[in-house]
Model the fold of this input.
Amino acid sequence: MEEICAVTPKNKYNMANRKKRITDEEFYEAFPPGYQSPSGSKFDLQRLKVDFKFKNESQKNLANLINDNKITIVAGPAGTGKTYLACAQALKLMKSDQRFKKIILVKSVTVLEGEEVGFLKGDLKEKMLPFTISFLDNFHKIIGEGLTQIMLDQGYIEVLPLAFIRGRSIDNAIIIVDEAQNITQKNMRSTMTRIGTDTKMIITGDTKQIDMKNPKLSSLDLVVKIFQNKDNIGTIHFGVNDIVRDPIVKLIEETFDEWEEKNSKPNKE
Done:
């Protein structure tokens, strides 16, 4: 059997209009036997393999918080696996619990001065792609590009800018809010209150990478602090010792921390 095309020529949601392909093995992991065609078959979540191992105790604690709470808030430096684990756990929950019908990826769209998302070419998916490719990279690592594309095509994964969830009550979904350090306190309140029936929300971010003009408006540290020990809300802080990416990432974080601590102290005359 030849490789099955996971993206039709009419589907514009791929890099440089390339077709992404999945192998026979990947296809049968996602689709039941006796399928009619890739476009006509409904995705079978029970055949989806989501295999990953916790690399430290903090990751295990985060997974438990996601399982046990309606809302989970995690802050920590780059390379700790926050977003990766959020994506992996969301896939596992969708597979094991039929209440969850989709994963909604939400990101605050921070652009350079003078640029707006509306001026980018294409439809909403194409406009959001540059801002959410890091999100999708996690799904590519967990289940592969082909299956990620099928889930996007069939609506199991939805990508939205922060502004597009305002005013909605979102039911039967797992919402992952990434880069929460760039969400204002006002917008964070609006975002968290979108949660509806049979919905979970996972909020991730890194307070050391705030891109807002006024960093004091960032909501991440605030929500981690004020929602500690609240019912149905879990909070967790990752530290530099939880970094699991290349060891140089830990070196970079520690070096910047030392420099910031040294230069934040007032000069003594």
